[in-house]
Design brief:
single chain; 340 residues; alpha/beta; 434 Repressor (Amino-terminal Domain); Rossmann fold; six-stranded parallel sheet; 14 strands; 40% helix; 19% strand; disordered N terminus; repressor; LacI family DNA-binding transcriptional regulator
Length: 340
């Protein structure tokens, strides 16, 4: 819609309006505004079209131009729930910024895990002739690739599908677990407990592997009795408190920040001070939790923004995952606060 000098909305100017004003066909207008190669248009007709475009304030529809040229400056992003998940929503932010940097616009569809909506979203993006599609989940996991994704160039973000042939961008869970443990070792701790999730996932196995490798590198033997499987939520951290204290650990690496929050509650009830009596390290860097606990929680960040940005770079061929895994692992940086 456009606005007249009297402030009333008037219909947008169309190619038909331009054609009528210039005294030419709609096809001629289309050829001029799209700068169609090989189109035989006389200089006088071209001038009239250009003058009508300027006089009427015609603005070309970007989608129409995309379809007429068979090219696109759009990148699609199909997500299960990250748009409604505060910290994972940074994936969209990172992808959007990186796409814009390279002259592309991001089209986002949040499906809430609904298969029918997901298929419709992918079909719509294919119709718009997107350059390619990023397919993302709100937590790191293996997925079954929607069949329609194979009809275009696609990159998986925060998820992977072994054997699919699709490239993926994921957090380096093992490096993150190693970094978290190294922070506690650097603070002088040698008896370090690990509250890990009971849910099988790349985070469960990767963070445990990182914990073990950091201890080994520091000359500290791995002690199975210091690993406490718990629900990956506040209740899990709270429930593990007594076992952690009975183990004699002086520091605890928690599977995520919610577990750490529950552990904070349990330690407080037992009269323990953080970090004077026991140090606590989280994972995820959920700002709404980590930065606002007392004391603020030291943690390792899931690099959601960089996952989105790297996904765009991989899609555009600017960056390539190593073969044969086709998986680009993004580092999880430490966030130092006051709990260790």
């Amino acid at each position: 819609m456009s606005t007249s000098e009297h402030g009333k909305h008037t219909p947008s100017v169309t190619m038909r309006d331009v054609a009528k004003a210039a005294g030419v066909s709609v096809a001629t207008v289309s050829h001029v505004v799209n700068d169609k190669a090989g189109a035989r248009i006389g200089a006088e007709a071209r001038r009239r079209v250009q003058e009508a475009v300027a006089a009427l304030g015609y603005r070309q529809n970007a989608l129409a131009k995309t379809l007429s040229q068979g090219t696109s400056r759009f990148i699609g992003l199909v997500a299960d729930a990250i748009a409604t998940t505060p910290f994972a929503g940074q994936i969209i932010h990172g992808a959007q910024d990186e796409a814009w940097k390279h002259g592309y616009v991001l089209l986002v569809a949040n499906t809430d895990g609904n298969t029918a909506v997901e298929n419709d979203a992918i079909a719509m993006m294919l119709e718009h002739q997107v350059h390619g599609i990023l397919y993302s989940t709100w937590y790191h996991r293996e997925i079954v690739v929607p069949e329609a994704l194979h009809q275009t160039d696609a990159v998986l973000v925060d998820c992977f599908a072994d054997g699919s042939g699709l490239r993926s961008v994921v957090p380096d869970e093992e490096q993150g677990g190693r970094t978290a443990t190294e922070e506690l070792l650097a603070a002088g701790h040698r008896r370090i407990a690990f509250i890990n999730t009971t849910t099988p996932s790349p985070a469960q196995s990767g963070r445990l592997a990182g914990y073990r490798s950091a201890l080994t590198a520091a000359g500290v033997g791995f002690d199975e009795s210091l690993v406490f499987p718990s629900e990956p939520a506040q209740e899990g951290g709270y429930a593990a408190t007594s076992r952690v204290l009975a183990s004699g650990a002086t520091a605890v690496f928690c599977h995520n920040d919610r577990v750490a929050m529950g552990l904070y509650d349990g330690l407080r009830e037992h009269g323990r001070r953080i970090p004077e009596d026991i140090a606590v390290m989280g994972f995820d860097n959920q700002d709404v939790i980590a930065a606002h606990l007392r004391p603020p929680l030291s943690t390792v960040a899931l690099p959601h923004y960089e996952l989105g940005a790297a996904g765009v770079r991989v899609l555009l061929g600017i960056e390539e995952p190593p073969a044969p895994s086709l998986q680009l692992r993004v580092a999880c940086p430490p966030i130092q606060r006051e709990s260790i």
